[in-house]
Model the fold of this input.
Amino acid sequence: MSRYKFYSFIGVLACALTACSSLKTVDISLPDEMPGSYAGSTDTTSVAMVPVSKFFPDTYLLNLIDTAFSANPDILASLQRIEAANANLKYNGLLWAPTLNLNARAGVERYGEYTMNGVGNYDTNLSQNISGNQRIPNPTPDYFLGFQSSWELDLWGKLKNRKKAAFNRFLASQSGYKMVTTSLTSQIATAYYQLLALDNELRVIRKNIDLQNNALEIVKVQKLGGRATELAVQQFLAQLKRTQGMEAMVKQQITETENQLNFLSGKFSKSIPRDTSINTLKLPTVLKAGVPSQLLLNRPDIQQADFELKAMNADIKAVHAAFFPQLTLSPYVGFNAFRTSVLFNPGSIAYGILGGVTGPIFNRKQIKADYERTQAEGKQALYSYQKTVLNSYQEVLNSLKSIENYTTAYRNKQQEVQALTNAVSVANDLYLVGRANYLEVITAQRNVLDAELELAHTKKNIFIGAVNLYRSVGGGWKR
Done:
C-alpha cells in the first residue's frame, strides 16, 4: 500500500468513527470595546514603566521590598511554579520523540500435546534439518535481551497542541510570578505607609496628652482656689484617660503593622527601621495611568489570564484529536533464544517493527464528555480573562480618583487643623479670664486631636492611592 493510500485510509476511517466532529475553540474577546482614555486623558505616559527603585523615594521601604523578594514564601512558591511549568513543558515536548527502553525478559511455557505449538514442536524436533541447541525443549523457555521503542505519529496535532498548552502555561507561570511581586510590593508599601501614619498619630496623641496633663493641673489649681469645681476636674481627667487609651490602641496597631511587614519579608519579629515623617515624605513624581489599552501589555494578571486561555484552546484541540485513530510504531532489536547458552550467538539476533492503528468506538462517549468538560473550562478561562480586564480598569479609575480627592481633602484638613489649633489657644485664654467654661476648652482640645488624626489618615490615603495606581496599571515588578 502506498503512503498516499495509507493516509487516505486513515482519513476515511477517522471521519467514519467521529462523523467528522467539528472543532470548537474559545475566542479571546474583551467584555466591550475598551475606553480610549481615563476620564478624558489621552496621555500615554504610564507609571507602570517606572522601576520600583525609582518610584519609591524612601530607602527604608526599598530595603524592605528587596528583603521580601529573597525570603517571602509567596515569591519562593511562585518561582517553584515556574520550575514545575518548565518541567511540564519539557515533558510534553519529549512526547514527540520515540521512546527507547532496554528490555530483558525471561519466561517458560509448557505446550500441551494436542495444541498447534505442541504438535508443531514435536514434528520440528524430528526433522533432519535441526540438531543440538536448535531442538525445542518442552517446557520451552523464552529469553530476550534488547531494545524496544514506541513512537506515536502525531497525525492530528494532539502532541503538538499538548506542547502548545504547556508552553502557554509556562508563560502564564512567569506572569503569575510578576503578579505576585506586584502584589507583594503593593502590600509592603501599603503597610509601610500605614506604619508611618501610625507613628505620626502616636506623636499627635502624645503631644495632646502633654497639653491635657497641663490643662488638668491648671484646673486642679483653680479648684483649690475656688474657681473650678470637681466636675471640671473629672471632665479633664476623663478626656486625658480617653487620649491615653487611644495611645495604647495606636501602639498595638503599630505592633501589628510591624509584624505584618516582618511576615511579608519572610522574617520573624524585629523592629522595622524608619525615620521619615509621612507629612514630609514626597509623593512619586510620575502618577499617570496612560491609556486603558496599555493594561493588556502591562498588567501581569491580564497576561496570565490570556496565556491560560490560549492553553485551554490548545487543550480543546488536543482532546478533540482523541476522536481520531492513533498510529503507533513499535520497532525492536535484540537477542532472542530459548536456551541461555546461545542467547548471545549471532544467530539469535532478532529485530522487527510493529505498526498499530487504534481508534475509539465504544469509548467515544467518554472522549466526548472529556471534550465538553475541556470546552467548559475554556469558557471559564474566557470569563476570567474578561473579569480581569474589567477589574483592572475599575482599579485604575478608583486609584486616580482617590489621589485627586484625598489630596483636596488633605488641603482642607490642613486648614481645619490650623483653625482648630487657634481655637484651642483662644479657648484656653478665655477660660483663664472666665469668659469660657471648661467644656468649651475640652471640646476644642478634642476637636483638634480628632482633626490632626484625620489629617495623618488622609495623608496616608494619598500614598496608598499612589501605590494602588502603581499596582493597578501593572507596575511594581520591574527592579
Summary: Residues 24-119+136-472 form a domain with the Outer membrane efflux proteins (OEP) fold (CATH 1.20.1600.10).
